[in-house]
Amino acid sequence: MQKESMELLWKSSHISGGNAAYVEALYETFLSDPNAVPEEWRDYFQQLPRANDTAISDIPHSPIRDHFAQLAKAPVRAINGGGSSEVSAHERKQVRVIQLVSAYRQRGHQEAQIDPLGLWERHRVPDLELQYHQLSEADFDTTFQTGSLYIGKDQATLREIYQAVRDTYCRSVGAEFMHIVDTRERAWIQQRMEGVRSKPDYGLEARTHLLERLTAAEGLEKSLGSKYPGTKRFGLEGGESLIPMMDAMIQRSGSYGAKEMVIGMAHRGRLNMLVNILGKNPSELFDEFEGKVTYQGSADVKYHQGFSSNVMTSGGEVHLALAFNPSHLEIVSPVVEGSVRARQDRRNDPEGNTVVPIVLHGDAAFAGQGVVMETFQMSQTRAYKTGGTIHVVINNQVGFTTSLQEDARSTEYCTDVAKMVQAPIFHVNGDDPEAVLFVSQLAADFRQEFKKDVVIDLVCYRRRGHNEADEPSGTQPLMYRKISKHKTTRDLYVNHLVEEGVIDKAFADQMAAEYRQALDDGQHVAKSLVKQPNTALFVDWTPYLGHAWDVPGDTSMDAKVLKDVAASMNQIPEGVSVQRQVAKIYEDRRKMAAGAMPVNWGFAETLAYGTLLKAGHPVRITGQDVGRGTFSHRHAVLHNQNDGSRYVPLQNVAEDQAPFAIYDSLLSEEAVLAFEYGYATTQPNYLVIWEAQFGDFANGAQVVVDQFISSGELKWGRLCGLTMLLPHGYEGQGPEHSSARLERFLQLCAEHNIQVCVPSTPAQVYHMLRRQVIRPLRRPLVVMSPKSLLRHKEAVSTLEELSDGQFHSVLDETDDIDKSKVTRLILCSGKVYYDLREARREHGKDSIAIVRLEQLYPFPYDDLRAVIAQYPNLKKVVWCQEEPRNQGAWYNSRHRMARVIRSFKPEKNLLLGYEGREPSASPAAGYTALHVEQQKKFIAQALKL
Predict the structure, then answer these.
(1) Which residues make beta-bridge pairs with 126?
(2) What's the pLDDT at 258?
(3) Which domain, by its residues, includes 147?
(4) Distance CA 622, CA 664 (A)
(5) Exposed e or buried b for every residue in 392-414, given b needs 16+ CB within 10 A?
(6) In angstroms, rounded to a whole number, what is the distance separating the alpha carbons of residues 534 and 556?
(7) Under a CB-based contact definition with an 8 Å cutoff, are residues 326 and 268 in contact?
(8) Final residue before a domain boundary, out of 751, 773, 804
């Protein structure tokens, strides 16, 4: 019976009319299990053309759906006699036409003419040939349904269809978007590209403006080349289309209502961008080349510098900020994202409508640097999304100096990594300015429409070598032989416009002469620059400028207010069912707030946040496991055991409180820390915290520490109040979970650039965190935070120490001993203090005092001197640390401690000694027994047991 029904369906209206839905369901079933459909249908589906001999199940069936939909619109034709085979053959060809269109959407980019030098080896793509789809030029005049092809009509000849897909996908633009699973996004791109065949008909004004921007781009490079020959500048020659591209994206974004745009880029083209897009005065650039500028701090080279300005667009004034960037290329990407997110948060813009990030990349760096992948991976997460980023790859086709494609990457394109987040990728020939303009507007529109990342691969070349002092032909002879004969992008476009009768040669020459004259006159040459900008678009840093590192900040507060904050933080609404151990933690915190229990670390830390929020200071915390805390001490985010929903008590401290954001991060250190650095440099009124899961995990973000956190102020004048919490302490957990590499941070310390603290009590961490935002100083704070001390019975404080106290850079002896009888003084930091004190008490060593250095940098000379002065009969001072001798604070701090000690009774020659682990290539022992043995030994030596 089923076979008879199938035959009837097949002979009547088989895949037309109302049966389309039924056939589509059959096709879906066939894709998962071919044997689950009747034989007749299986034979029919198997006759569909395959792609490169791949399995039939791998062929996208969206074109088949399109075909079914088109046939459903067509009238049902009677099938009888000899006409049956004729109609069937046409319908089968119709399917092949749809498959042909799909092939061009998927693989047309592989035949696109996107290399301006014509050096790319483009392999034959069988899918794009008519014969592959069992079609030929003999079918050119046959009319077919156009399906979802956007060419303005439902039916067209094969000739028209073939020409449309060739023009759209195989000329100066090569698009990769079929990897996107969202049908709406794919259809949007198809419509935008196919509707104009990837070549809009631009008017005189647009084309003249394109020429003017190209003239500016080329004119600056020629001027610099003639004024300063051989001087390193990483010029844009060969990639001049970047300037009209940036101009187009800025204007387009401004028309959508963007108020700020943050731009990140490496070296190439940076000077051109500064002058022709951001409006830096050319005379200032010339002064920098000639050494006529006054530097603050250590400064940095010209092609690392940032800049900011305002430009006018059709949608109003837009503030542009070009981020500072070291030579670590792609590391600027997450820094830009952090700055953008901060600006969006300030504007209460969770969608990302008012602040737009644009990041420019090099081809080899985009493919080779892991931080690119990390930045893409964070792009849609709650903590780090910015409403999509426009990525531009300045594809010079050679990585550094000698890198060829086969050495630079393992993928077809340098942009393939972007497919991981289903970002559309538009490859464009840099020598076709109008195609560049088209994809620039297309990318800006896509970002605006879908709030997702989009990538432009600007395929160009370097007319000179890696820099102007480099001779590239030694390693790239064929490429540079071609380049030496290749006309510039501007010359090619001028010739094109002259040939079309749009302009004459004299007009183009006059434009170039006027630009050169403006440069020589020291005029601004960015056409849209706002000379008197709206300062409301700027971040006001004036309250944080010019302060000494020890500027006071009162971190005490009224005891009643403190208790009120504590009470509100500990309230859990009805309906929020928390896990048993978490409920016990909050029960204990309520007792601590009432004074019935001493304050532990987790409560003191969260109280610091709560009191800051109450006073109007926003707080942002990110990192792996920060909601709970790696060691389960924080529990700032409660998870309802009934429905999995989240409740954050610190977001409910008071009705008019400041914002509190806390996010568990993706498993990244480099990109996340760079993001938070960017955030902190843009939101000076925030307490911004990044916590490492274990302190040594910061190793994975060392470039951020070295190039931004420790030196950003001295190089670029960039203030930053970022706080890093790095769990540190030797509990026998092995080399990877002990040391936060304190010595590395201390080695970077100079000119009061960062603060390095090792708090040992809850009160200390409370006041340290509050001090970081209350006082107007904005310097990074690096904290060696504890692990075992989080629950140590002795590591507790009182509410009075929180309400009435302050942060102490040095903590004196706390046991009741006679200081006049002390002959041996032990200096230390962190957890080892509690180990030393326990052993001293056990052995009754009352002639030994233990003093803690809670702040190792800036070094507290005066505070330490004041403490030591209370011990008149000292005979020996030793520094004791858990870390091996070649690590920890010893080598970087001993001269500072010795300086203080030598100031007491120089006639007695009071010296500083060391007690601790022996030098080691590893941070810590891998076996608990060995760890314990080492610790007992140096504790005994420190106490002279």
Answers:
(1) none
(2) 96
(3) 2-175
(4) 6
(5) bbbbbbbbeeebebeebbeeebb
(6) 38
(7) no
(8) 804
305, 278 in Cβ contact below 8 A? no
Closest CA to 199 of 424, 438, 425, 428: 438
Q: Which pLDDT does position 522 carry in this prediction?
A: 85
Under 8 Å between Cβ of 57 and 28: no
Does residue 396 share a domain with residue 336? Answer: yes
The tens digit of pLDDT for each residue in 20-54 reads 555 766 676 656 555 565 655 655 665 454 434 34
Indicate yes or no: pTM above 0.85. Answer: yes
Please write the tens of the pLDDT for every residue from 785-828. Answer: 999 999 999 999 999 999 999 999 999 999 999 999 999 999 99
Is 581 inside any structural domain?
Answer: no
Q: Which amino acid is present at 394?
A: I
Supply the DSSP string of 597-663, one letter for each residue.
S-B-HHHHHHHHHHHHHHTT--EEEEETTTTT-TTS----SEE-TTT--EE-GGGGS-TTPPPEEEE
Radius of gyration of the chain (CA): 34
Task: Give the total residue count for the chain.
Answer: 945
**Closest C-alpha to 247, from 203, 211, 213:** 213
**185 inside domain:** no
425-429 and 390-395 beta bridge pairing: unpaired
What's the whole-number mean pLDDT along residues 117-136?
92
The domain spanning residue 923 has which CATH number? 3.40.50.11610
> Do 401 and 364 share a structural domain?
yes
Bridge pairing between strands 687-691 and 755-757: unpaired
Spell out the alpha helix ranges (H) of 416-552: 433-450, 477-485, 489-499, 505-520
Phi-psi region of 736 (alpha: psi -120 to 50; beta: other; left: phi over 0): alpha
Q: Cis before residue 858, ω within 30 degrees of 0?
A: yes
Q: What is the pLDDT of residues 12-24, one digit of tens each?
A: 444 444 455 557 6
Q: Are residues 451 and 385 in the same domain?
A: yes
| Interatomic CA distance for residues 728 and 697, integer angstroms | 11
Beta bridge partners of 308: 321
Asked if residue 582 belongs to a domain, the reply is no
Residues 867 and 897 occupy one common structural domain: yes
Say if CB 605 and CB 597 are below 8 A apart. no
Least confident among 103-112, 174-183, 223-232, 653-662? 223-232
